[in-house]
Structures are given as C-alpha cells and as structure tokens.
Amino acid sequence: MQPQQNTLLETDLLKTFVTISETGNFTVAAKRVFRTPSAVSMQIKRLEDLLGRALFVRHPRHVTLTSDGEAFLVHAKDILRINDEALSRFRVPRLEGRIRFGVSDDFGVRYLPEILSRFASTHPLVEVEVLLSTSLILTRKFEAGEIDMILTVSAQSDPALGQLVHSEPLVWVGARDGIAFSRTPTPLAMSTHGCPWRAAALAALDRSGRPYRIAYTSETGAGQLAAVMADLAIAPLPISLLGEQHRRLTEKDGFGEIGSYQLRLQKIPDIGSAGQAFGDHVCESFGQAE
C-alpha cells in the first residue's frame, strides 16, 4: 500500500478513526458519528490510502488496531485536540453562562457524552446542567419554566413541537434466536404511557389484527431490551438500538411497519448566547443543523 502524496488529514476522517478504535465496531461507530456503515468504511479506506498503511485488522464481528493503527491513534487524538483548541481560541466567542438541558433517557445515555465533551472543549466556561427523564416529564418541566432547552421524542412532523434534529425508523425487535414473537398473544415490552412510539406500535398491531398483551413496561429502551434479551417479549425500538444479539422482525414474521420517530429541540425564547451556541452544537452533532 503506497501513501498518497501532498495530502492533508481531514478531521472528519480522524474523528471516525478514533471512534472506531474506541468501539471496535464499524456499525456502532457509524451510529456515533451519524453516518452509514458504508460511509464509515469508505472514510477508513481513504485514510488508509492517505497513509499507505492498514489501520485495522478485520475480524468477523469486530475490528482491532494494527501496530500502525495504535501509533497513528496518538497522533489523531492530538490533531483533534489541537484543532478544537484553535477553534476555541480564535473563532468561537468566549461564552459564559448556565444552561438547564433536558433530554430523553435513551438518547442522553447514547449521545450526550460525545456532545457534552466536544462542547466543553470549545466553551469551557459554559455550565450545562442535564436532566434525563421521559419526554412527557421534560415537556411539562419546560412548559413550567424549569428547563431552558429540551430534546424530546415525537411521532409527529409538527414544527410547533420544536426544531427537527434527528429521525429514524422504529422496528420490532426480538432476541436473535428467540421465540417470543411466535407466541399468542404476542408478549410486548413497552414504554410507559405518553411515549409517542408506544401508541404508534400498538396502532400497527391493531391494523394487522395481531393479538398481543403488554407483559413488561419500562420508561427506558434499556429496560425493554432486558425483556427482549431474556426472550420474554418483543419491543418496538429505534433501529439504531439493534445489535448483533437482536433480531429485526419484519412482515415475513407477521409484523408490519411502525413508522418513524423524531427528536425535536425546543428552547425558551430568551435562551441567550450560550444557550443558542449549545443548541446549534446539538443540531450539528446530529448532522441536521438548520
């Protein structure tokens, strides 16, 4: 493998490389950087072509760094850190303030660490106070003036519910080798009342005429997946939660499409410069800034 000449390392390629090194999986990394697995694979191929070295060893279900990959990881992290420091010093206003930010549990656990880390690197004087809860509770607190900004789940394409940040399909999920989906009535692991995709999932079952019973209830996707993993029930969940230990149930299994959900961002009118910057950062992190 011969390196390309007179090239520059793009930070997007470095971010993807570092994320894959941390997760050990192209598919998981793709979800974190908000790209498709094929796009991530193309990015790594470009990077390996630039360097003229193989960075990963491909295994059936994961990847590991080569010796060159381990050496390059140090440089990649340094370049990204210096890039963020330079932007913070010269391009980004030095903002100060406090933001009360509410986010739905499942998405906070999956996405917030990266979002908060990168925002803190460019705006170290802004304090972000985070509340993880259900979309229903967060909306109530937002309307009561207890939170400045919320990122909540919606099943409606209604701009009045806030700025669209992210959207993805909902799918039926069972254990990889499970049989819960074949039982009658179908045992379900559902979110609590008030969750937008609970209503959408039950409506899909009603349309198909499939009998069901709600066997387990949880406020979080993690709680639903626990019942799924034990093969005690199936659950309607975002497609991004599908893992190798899960099975996506389709019309061939007797389960029709549920639809999609949306993540929408709402901010108080007088959010201030710090709040506006954080809101923009959240949207940009999902790749759909308006």
From TrEMBL:
Family from the record: Belongs to the LysR transcriptional regulatory family.
Keyword Protease: no
Designated name of the protein: LysR family transcriptional regulator
HTH lysR-type domain: residues covered: 9-66
Originating species: Paenirhodobacter populi
Sample GO molecular function, one term: DNA binding
Keywords: DNA-binding, Transcription, Transcription regulation
